[in-house]
Amino acid sequence: MDDYEKRLPEDAYGEETKPNARVWRVYVEEAAAFDGVMVNQYRDGLDVMLVFAGLFSAVVTSFLVQVSQNLQADYAQMSALLLHDLRFCFQYLLSFSRPAQKFVPDAIDVWINGLWVVSLTVALVVALAAVLVKQWLHHYVSLPSGTPMDCSHVRQFRFMGLERWRVRVIIGMLPLTMHISLMLFLAGLVLFFIPLPMPSPSYSLSAHTRHP
How far apart are CA 104 and CA 75, in angstroms? Predict the structure, then answer.
């Protein structure tokens, strides 16, 4: 750090606390250096968080679009059932249709959609919070024009606001919140793969025996 006593002229007697005094100029320079390092660290982490949250949200959305169809009735299957009913009616001269059955989605489909919707919502909240914090940091480092004393007061006021609103804690909580969103997605992914049929051991053994 440069020696401010050599760079900045000494104040006249009785002017040590004037708006253009050396103490205010030194404060502005030291605060700018401190804030620059702090804000750059925060911005790097927020940029990474925004990229990850954007890509993760796109992945979750693509999965959610596919599984959300399981919560609706399959009209192709319903048409096949109606055709079967008509054939049954014509064959046995019974009623033309049986009572319609209300569609009820499987519980596992409801759980998968619920987990992925919550995961997507949390990821979007993280992205929104990261954008808001970046805007706040941009406003924090932009000091207004005026005397060094005015700039010092504004900077200190903003720094106290940063501490009061726990901005550091909010930035530190964003990765943890993103991890929660990822865990919810993985839990839904496990449920998504549970209904998939597994190959029969006997079939695999016979296939292995036929093709040594």
Answer: 14
- As separate numbers, helices (DSSP H) first and strands (DSSP E) second, the chain gives 7, 0
- For the stretch 174-207, what's the b/e string if a residue is b when 16 or more beta carbons lie within 10 angstroms of its beta carbon? beebbeebbebbebbbebbeeeeeeeeeeeeeee
| Cβ 181 vs Cβ 52: under 8 Å | no
Spatial separation of the C-alpha atoms in residues 104 and 101, rounded to whole Å:
9
147 close to 98: Cβ distance less than 8 angstroms: no
User: Are the beta carbons of 55 and 97 closer than 8 angstroms?
Assistant: no
Q: How confident is the model at residue 66 (pLDDT cuts 50, 70, 90)?
A: confident
CA pair distance 154, 143, nearest whole angstrom: 7
Amino acid at 76: A
pLDDT at 90: 55
Confidence of residue 70 (pLDDT cuts 50, 70, 90): confident
pTM: 0.73
Phi, psi of 65 (to 5 degrees): -65, -35
Q: Where are the beta strands (DSSP E) in the chain?
A: none
Instruction: For residues 123 and 117, give the distance between their C-alpha atoms in angstroms, rounded to a whole number.
Output: 10
* Separation of alpha carbons 152 and 2, rounded Å: 20
CA-nearest of 16, 39, 19 to 136 is: 39
Q: What tokens were used for 90?
A: 């014509």
- Cα angle 191-192-196, degrees, rounded to a multiple of 5: 105
